[in-house]
Amino acid sequence: MSRWGVGKSMPDEKKYVFMSVKAIRGREATKIAEHQNRGWELVDQSRGVVQTTLNFRRERPTMFGSKAWAAFRELDTKTQLRVGVGAAGLVVALVLAGVIASVLGGNDELAEASAAQTATRTATERPTGTQTPTAAVTSQSASATSAPSPSKTSKPYVYTGPRYQVVTIDEDVSNAHLNQYWVYTKDFDYSKSGFRKQVKAIITDVAHREGSDKVIVNVVTDKEIIAAESNATIKSFMDEKGMDYFTSVIAPKEKTDWVAMYVGGFDGNEAKPSDADDAFEISWLAEKIEGVEKWKPRL
Description:
The chain has seven helices and 13 strands. It is of the alpha+beta class. The protein folds into two domains: about 1-115, no CATH class; about 120-150 and about 155-295, no CATH class. The strands form three sheets. Strands 5-6-7-8-9-12-13 form a seven-stranded mixed sheet, with helices on both faces. Strands 1-2-4-3 form a four-stranded antiparallel sheet, with helices on one face. Helix 4 runs parallel beside helix 5 (about 195-210).
């Protein structure tokens, strides 16, 4: 959500419009550039448990009414009276026009929100047989290591989605203490609707291996995004590459190759664990498919 208000800068006392935008961790640079292109100035940013709040401002345009009122006050009393009577009809028309405009208008500065990370451990440290960064997960191995024991009345779970690799796992993320999987897979054709079903199949398989739909799963098609975003590797990556590299190389990649983030069991608005249906969702992150979908994998 956006927060609006009016303030003054200290040196020249100009009035500003303020707005706060919540950005998914790792997408701050993209969001900042987007709003700067629209004339907004970044004031500061606050990094929370699962998202970053970006605070912007821009100078409020001088309204015609304020100038007219200043001029009106300079007139003598009799002239003010004549102007006031003659403008009465115009005021009514302007008020009506304002009501119509307010009904038809809208605010296109919408905020985004999603999840982020706090604590880490790599996939090779997992005691549950999770794939190492160099071993791809196939449908046979994933189902063999994670499928629940079938009952007499249900069929055994079999993974039929695309091949993928669990590169890194960040553990104990947020106050919901979720495990966060970073998954690499091949490129998707965003022009075909079937890619969403494939992404959900990967997330469902990871949830089976986790043994719970309360988990975070990031699906990317470029491993460098994982190196730049996973809690396990972000420090070493930034030490080696630097912020300029992140801004010029990683941020553009994320627009196309950070496909989706699933977060299950966490209420982003309240910043707390939750079993409510609204606490399970996929954020489609690639620029061509951006959106949020309430969904949970069936286990």
